[in-house]
Structure formats: structure tokens, C-alpha cells
Amino acid sequence: MSNEEKNTVIDDQIKVLTPKDLASDQDVRWCPGCGDYSMLSQLQRTLPEVGVKKEDIAVVAGIGCSSRFPYYMSTYGFHGIHGRALAIASGLKVSHPNLTVWVATGDGDCLSIGGNHFIHALRRNVDINVMMFNNQIYALTKGQYSPTSLHGQKTKTSPTGVIDHPFNPMLIGLGAEGTFVARSMDRDPKHLKEMMLAMYYHKGTSFIDVLQNCVIFNDGAFDVYTNKETRDDNVIYLEHGKPLVFGKNRDKGIRLDGFRTQVVSLNDYSESDLIVHDTKSKELAFILAHMNDQPGFPLPVGIFLDIERSTYEDELEQHVQSAIEKKGAGTMRSLLYDGQTWDIDNGSN
Amino acid sequence: MATTVETADGRKTKSVQFVEVDDVTIRFAGDSGDGMQLTGTQFTSTTAQVGNDLSTFPDYPSEIRAPSGTLYGVSGFQIHFSSRAIHTPGDRFDTLVAMNPAALKVNLKALHEGGSILVNTDSFDAKNLKLAKYDVSPLDDDTLRGYNVYPVPITTLTAKALEETGLSPKEMARSKNFFALGLLYWMYNRPLEATLAWIQEKFGKKPMVAKANELALKAGYSFGNITEVFSVQYNVRPAKLPAGTYRNVTGNEATALGMVAASVKSGLPGFLGSYPITPATEILQELSRRKNFGFKTFQAEDEIAGVCTAIGAAFGGSLAYTTTSGPGMALKTEAIGLALMVELPLVIINVQRGGPSTGLPTKPEQSDLFQAVMGRNGEAPVPVIAACSPAGCFYGAYEASRIALKYMTPVILLTDGYLANGSEPWLLPDESELADISVPFASNPETFKPYERDDHLSRPWAVPGMAGFEHRIGGLEKQHITGNVSHDPMNHQVMVEMRAKKIAGIADDIDDQTVFGPAEGDLAIVGWGGSYGAIRTAVERLQEENKSVAHIHVRHLNPFPKNLGEMLRRYKQLLIPELNLGQLAFLLRATYLVEPITFNKVQGLPFTPSEIEQKANEILNTL
User: Fold this and answer.
1) Which of A199, B19, B170, B469 could join A129 via S-S bond, C-beta 3.0 to 4.6 A?
2) Which among A78, A81, A342 is the nearest to B315, CB-wise?
């Protein structure tokens, strides 16, 4: 959708918002250089473009550095408790389906203490937009390993290296039957904003794993993916309908050899030999999510899966409406006098 | 009075004695698969419509189908009905229906001397006798001497009645509880119509099952009518209850109705976030079939999500609830603290059960009072209300909702398994009798401050979607008035004290404590929650003996009613019976420096009036 088209969606009555209108009066207190700033500014740029009213936006968060996000937006905001952002957001959206609900959560908040709510939100497909700020570290508690920390990573609670095997957020998102699963990076604001727009327009739970650099406790964790020198050879951008090409000289691609992915040179193969990305294919999404488990493969970034399934709140609303059609809208009298009643007169029956 | 009826063969006649009684307690008992809960519920429904006052108590194992014939697999349903007003399901029973030897063994000790026993002799075989640990059949030795025993081959007779249906013996046996019910209807002179109508409604889509149950019910009734062994028919006249329309409700049903009523009255959409847990689950079930009230239910992935979805819904402008029992309460604790910090209305309903930990899931206890009043991190005051009877759960849920909305606070309602599953006739209120519910919606965006307070210290409620009121809230300490995050030392002092004062101030908004009986005197029995009925019955009996005994039933446990402390000091002694080790006694001692005598029972069973009466007499004798 072009910008012109989007603007026509905007009601004339609505004041056209600017990114500035979405900034609250509170000082932003993230560390200088933190990747969270990029996320904040991209969301503030995205929302004015989609033409949603400010009062219809709610940002919900759990606990952690990134979960301070709602305080910096001038919309409705809710800073919850550790791990519970998705449960709070689900209740909000289900009870009030007109709202546009965004969730700011971290790798610890979302995948560790809040892991249960995460998988259940995805399978229910409540129409909320989940931004997981993944810095592979517990930052607000000052540097302990998280469920996405790499095997062997040294942190304050793993001085001799992490023994846990890390979660692959894409696989959890897909495994929990998410309908929109994507990845982006704090250092690629253009891509980030593109993803946020797609999340907004996706009906159902949209989940994005954003690789976010923690300058204090895990600086440079994603350098190989974000540094201009190494980025193009280590990242592959997924675009629906396009072949999987990457490399500084765009001379490499991904093809399928049976069920396995293979990095090939475009000197030996043509683009027609490569996988053409399909965001509607669950099978391909799983293959791509596994791809960079192996050395020598680029990290896929972009939308892995974007499919349609009815949302929880829509179905619930339909159940409410059909109950009203069937039984009539409930009143106090129909409530109290429901079922078997009997009358007693004059105190003696 | 005696009447003569013709017997089955049409030749002989039998004489039936017709006896008027005021008060009857029956216990239906059998395997957990024998349908005793259903039989009890049907007897209750019919008895309610006959116009008796009644009170019921189901007592079932936590296993769904415990191995058949075992002592621990016995499921019971007790109904106490009367021509007078009554408050409990009865201490001991007059009639025991025992569908197998285990049911007889488990329940015999609570049967009145000289009471009646209806046994299904078909189940008294070697295997079942062994499972019930009887060496010799109790039907063949002296075990049942002194009781009126009615040995009836219920399974055989049911099969005979269903002969022409073509059902298999196993299918026929399933209707045997209806045979027993029919027989009891004859013994207590109740009409069959209500149950016949219910069978049609319930099994209409399975005509064979409906037919079988109908035939069994009628066969049981006829068996009483024509068999020589049944020579007495009892009659319990309708009770003199206040005029009006009644329905029979269990505590969990009434709780659900109170929630919907508050939603209707306040004009707010209802929302329940909950996770199934015994004995609270029926509230979620009840509400999930009332969607035509716009009341949404959300079966969450866990207890924490139950309360957190409710908090999200409250933020979104719903009248939000979460329902649970003790272990679930423990899991919700942190979120309840969040709700009080963000000052959103939320009602948390704890249907208490035996604890700690998993404890006794199906058995009643009142041991979560400390947890409700004190069980959170930080200075975290939450209003606590307790329901006193099955129908009282309606008013408890309604009052909790009213306070939650008016004061923008989480409120805890305590009920228990005894109230939740017990039932009684409920005189339906007129809509105009229900208290008004005020909702403190923010009104002026120009002057709106999220934590500015009204005259009762409540903050304004601004809901997403309301333009000009956008604001942020969360669990971090709030700056007074603006609601911004604040770590300022003096601000924290102000806010902690403000929250405490707001909750304490609710004492000005609740009914004064009332007393049943003398305003001063020898003894006041002080109680809360589900022990209301047993205490009230005991106090009525003591008062009939002209003893100076009062009953003070405390509904509001935080804050206490303003006049409670002064009231407690007007009696020489205070007795506090509780199904815990003295939690209300502890709170009253700490709050008012009184010295109550505690009476604590933690057996997974409710108090009986006699226990309380006896304890009171012991105290009175020392005065």
C-alpha cells in the first residue's frame, strides 16, 4: 500500500498525528546507544502512517529495560509485571476489540517467565502486536544469561559459559501456531518500520523478534549482522515472492537439496534454482527458521510466516452476538428469573 | 392417619400410615458413578417447589470415578428440608439411601438412632462387601439393629421395569438411581412431575434414555405404593417463608448471578479471566453460558493469566473478575498487588478449600483469611468480604463489585466449597432492592490527572478509546496526582498511606455490624463465612433455652464495620468457631485487643450446630 493510499484511509475528522505527537512528556531513560531508542522511534513513525487515533492505541509491557516502553508513548499504556504483558494485553484486546494493542517485551520477559503466556497468545491468535526486544541478556538485573543467550556465553551467572541451549524464537513462534512470525534488527530502522506496518495490518497475533544491542551487558552481540562490513554476507532478507539471494555482491543464494538448505554461488546456479520466499508456507517457514543453526548460513530477517486465521476476539464476539440473537439480550429480570422458580404467597404458600 | 391402597396383584390391600413431620434429613450415598449428586439435586428441586425450606450439602471424592465399591469412592448428597426456616444441611440424617456396602459403612455413623436405611441389596455381593471391608454382610448380622432397614433389590427391579425397552443390562442399571428417587418421592410424598419434566428436557435428544429414566422413576414410586414393606409415608408441610418468588441456587451459581447482576446494574461489560480449579470451576461454567448478557469469559492458560487478563480487561473498561481457590490464589498474589497499585477495579473470588498446598480439594475450610487480608508483598491493603450462605454468595459478589468500582480497587470475595456446592431456596430480590453502583469515569480531559482523588480517595477511571485521557499506569510507585513513575521518598510515604486510608475509609460505606440476639450479655458467638448457618442454628437453640447468647456474623473482614470493636466488648465472653486455627480470632485480637475463646475445626467438614451449642454451653457453665 502506498502512502497516498494509506492516507485515504484516514478519517478527515482525525487529526493527522506526527511522530512527535506520540512521544510522552517523560524523559527516556534507556542507556545512550541502546537499541530500544530505535524501536521507540520506529513505532512513533509507523502509527501516524496507518491512521489510527491516538486514544485507540494501547501499549502494554512486562518487566525489563524494554518494558519501560509504554511510559515513553503518549498513548494509553500499561506497565505490567514480569512475564505477564501478553496476558494483560490479551485481556485488554479481547474485552475491547477496537483497540490497537502493542506489546513491548524482552527475551527474558517473553520467553522465560512469560513463556506460557507467549505460546498461548500465539495459538489463540488475539490481534495484538508483540515486539520482543531480544538482547540475549538480562539487562535490567545487570547481566545474567537469558533463554536466548548463546551456549557458552559468559555472563554474571555463567562465568564459565552458559550450559543451557538457547531458544530459537522463530521456532517457538511457528511451533505455537503463530500466524505472523518475523525477525528484524534495531540497527535497520527502515526494515523495522516496514515490519511494524505489516504487523499492524496483520489480523491476529503478530510476533517479531528484534535483535537489539545492549551496549552495557552484551555489546556487539549482533555486530556480525548489523555491521556494514559483514552484514550483507551474514544476513538474508526475506521478501515474499522473491528468490533468496544475499551477499555483498548479491552473488549467493539459498536452494533446497531435498529437505536441506544449501548456500550456492550464483556463478554456478541461476536465480530460478533458488527458493522463492513464500510467507504463506508453514513448511518453508520452519526450514528457514532452522537454517542458521548451521555454520556458513546467513541469518534470515523479515517475515517468515504471514497467514490468516480467525482471531480469538472476533470469534468470541460472534458467540456473544449469536447468544443475544438466540436468547435475547439479557436483562436483570431474565437473569434472576431464569430456570425453575416458584411463588410463595402470604407467607404460607 | 392411614389409608388403604390396593397392591400390585389387585387383590390384597395394604394399610399406609401417613405421618406429619417438621424436619427431615436424607443422605443419598453410592459410588461416585451411581448418580447420587443427580438424584440429590432432583429431590432438592422437587422439595423446593413443594415449598419446604431446605439446605443441601454434596460430599464427593476428588476422584471422578474412584474404583467402584471402595470406601473412598463413596459420593454423598445430603438434603435437610423442613416446614420451618432452617440454616444448615443438618447434623445427622433420618434416612440413608445406600446404593452399596461402602456407602452404608461410610455413612452409618451419622444416621440417627432408629433412622431408616434403604439399601440396594443387589450390590451386597461378596466383592462389594470385601471392598467395603465387611467380613459378614451387615444385612445378615446385628450391624443394623435398631434401624428401620428396607432391603430392596433396586438393580433387579429397575431391570424388570425396563424389560421392554430392549436396553442392555448395563444400560438398564444406569437408571437405578431414578428408581431410588421414585421410591423416596413416595416415602416423602413428593410429586414426580418436576423430575419427569426435567428428564424430558435433559434427555429429550436421547429418547431411549429418557424413557428408561422415566420408567425407573415411576417404578420406584409404584414399588413404594404397593409393597407391604413400606407402610409409612411422611409428609413435610410447606414452610412459612416470606412471600415472593424463589429459586433454588448453589453458592457458585449465586456467585455467577451476582457478577452478571453487577455488570447489568453498572452498565459495564463483564469479563471473567479464570482457570478451572475445584471447587470454583462452576462459576466459570455458569458464566460461559450467559454470553447473551455480553459477559465474556476467558479460560486462561493458568491462574496468573486468569487474573492478568482480568486486569487487562479492567484497564479496557470492563467489570473484571477472576475466580479461583486457595492454590490459585497463591499464584495470583503478585497480580493482585499490581491491580491495587494501578488502582483498577477487580473482583477476586476465592472459593476456599482445605489447604495448604493441594490439600483437600473437595472439602470446605476457612483457612485463606490471612492470605486474603495480608498475603501480598508490600503494604497492600485489599477489601475482603465473605459470603455466608449459598444465596448470600449473590450479595457477596454484588457488594464486592460495587466496592471495587466505587473505590477503584481489587476486592477479594471469600466463599468456600460448602457454600459453593450447597444449595438453598433464594427469595429473589427486586431490581430496585439492589444497591446502586457508581462508576468513577473521568469526565474532563482538560483537568484529568490519573491519580487525582475524589472525596473517598478514589482515582478517576479513564479507559482506552476515551480521547484526551491517554495516560500510563503500572506497578512502579506512582507520583501523587500525576501518576508518573516516582522514586521520591516522601511521595512513597504519601502513597502508601493514601492507599491504606482509601481502603480503611470503606468502613464508612458498608453496613454497620448487626447482632442476632441480645445487644449485651454473657456470650457472643462471632463467625464469618460459611459457618453462618451452623452458628445461627446453635444460637437459636441456646436462645430457646433462654440463654444470654448472641450471634455476630462478620461479612466485611477488611475493613471491619466501624461499630464492631465496641460491640464485641458488650459480652462477658466471645466464642469464635472457625474452620481454621483461629484466623478471625487473631485479627480481632490484634485490632480490638479482645480475648476471644477459639473453637477450631480442620477436618474438611463443616461445623454442626450441636458442636457449637455444646462448646457454648461449656463456656456458659463457667460464667
Assistant:
1) A199
2) A78
